Fold:
Amino acid sequence: MTTARAVWTSQGLQQLVKRELGDCHLVVVSNRQPYIYKLLDGQVSYEMPAGGLTNAIDPLMQSCGGTWIAHGGGTGDRLVVESGNKVMVPPHDPSYTLRLLWLTEEEEQGYYYGFSNNALWPLCHNAYTEPQFRSRDWQAYRRVNELFAQQVLDEVGNRPAVVFTQDYHLALLSNLLKDSNPDIITGQFWHIPWPNPDIFRICPWQDEILEGVLGNDVLGFHIGEHSNNFVETVARSLDARVDRDYSLVNFRGGTTLVRPFPISVDFDEIERESRSAAVTREMDALTEELGLEGLIVGLGIDRIDYTKGIPHRFRAIGRFFQKYPQYREKVVFVQAGVMSRTDIDAYQRLAEQVDDLLEEINSRFATAGWKPIIYLPTDLPSTKLMALRRLAQFCVVSSLHDGMNLVAKEYVASRFDEDGVLILSPFAGAALELTQALIVNPYATDDFADNILHAVTMPLEDRQMRMRRMRATVRENNIYKWAAQLLVQMLQLNRRGRFSGAEPALSSAD
Ligand code: GDG
Structure:
């Protein structure tokens, strides 16, 4: 029997942050804005970008208020901002300020497509795509990090402030902030893996990046392995003092606490949406539209990215239908995939590879009225994605390397009926928590195909037992717990000064 534990909620987090924040201003900084305004036929509308980061931080800002500073990349952004390039969001229920900064085409190319996504992204993921290190991209990256720093310093002014930076696009920001205003409390969450020191050392600007990130008082990764890799990279490269017991790095008079904080999803909100009548209606519509009636449905939901192992998954599906022909016309795999970073060659090559494999597998096995894989390469609305999660007897996450992977947790949170099998790569951070998934190496095609068979044939009782346990894990380790643990580490600095090394008190019941 399991004992019920207090679960973190939006309200609990809000109370905690208010209590600890006092008169401190909370600033979140990220490359991507949480709401993008689009101008179409003279009308401004908005959308939320696909991606783990926004899904994770927006609920937190809605609870806590403050300012989110981001690059304004939408065609309608300039029409909605008021003085100071600010607009209140969410548009339907304004609760915090979004402050946008503008980049030139050249800055965006060099900083975002160039150094962030053509150098740092492949460098940090072991997915065998070679990083491209171009000096002009690095210059743009530095320049844009400086632009972000100016915006943050302007926003903060003389107020006490806690600045929570997101991700690898802004590795230099915190150090720039500390140089100008050492009183700002800085924290950063690195949403992608940190590789081992032998891999990271190929970056020509590794020392500048490490020094930049060490401008943080608190630095978070998803799992212990990434934190340890970071600490070891610092120990090997910089003249820093490293305390492995407390995971502290002392460098040039500053101290950085390096810790894992496994990110998660808003479990209750996903479950609420999943139970809605709109989703049930959408399930019927999709069953009709895609011809899913009577079929066992498998599902993949991904940004089309070479770290997500989409070709590996398609190869395994092909192998499954080859090895187990009795499942032709009985099982179908639906792949939803939103395109991303299409300006980068590696992503264009991947999109072609996915199309070729799809064509190859479908033409090999399809029969009149049935094909093995249905590919939906569009940014699907949330109701459709939720309906697909509910229709799917199994969901596949086959990342070659992934910081966490929220798709896995979203699938689990949506299955209030306690049914469904998760096939999960051991190379996604989520595999450390979701141990009742079928853990499958995406490179091992035969084993992968056999695990698809396992998912298809697993008795209901077994599926429910596994799903119940995974749901208990995600319910407890939800997005609010993640935010509370991270922010507590930062906010307690505000209250009692620098680190004592002791664990701060943290309770959802407070
Ligand atoms: C980074 C790290 C880490 C996917 N396809 C569509 C769509 N999505 C949504 C999913 C999910 C999000 O995008 C993807 O989140 P992931 O966690 O899988 O991956 P990344 O974008 O690579 O995020 C990752 C995350 O940051 C958080 O820290 O977990 O490891 O790489 O929410 O549902 N959404 C829509 N249409 C789609 O077709 N609307």
In short: The pocket of GDP-alpha-D-glucose is lined by residues 50-53, 55-56, 191-192, 263, 301-303, 336, 338, 379-380, 385, 402-407, 410 (CB under 6 Å).
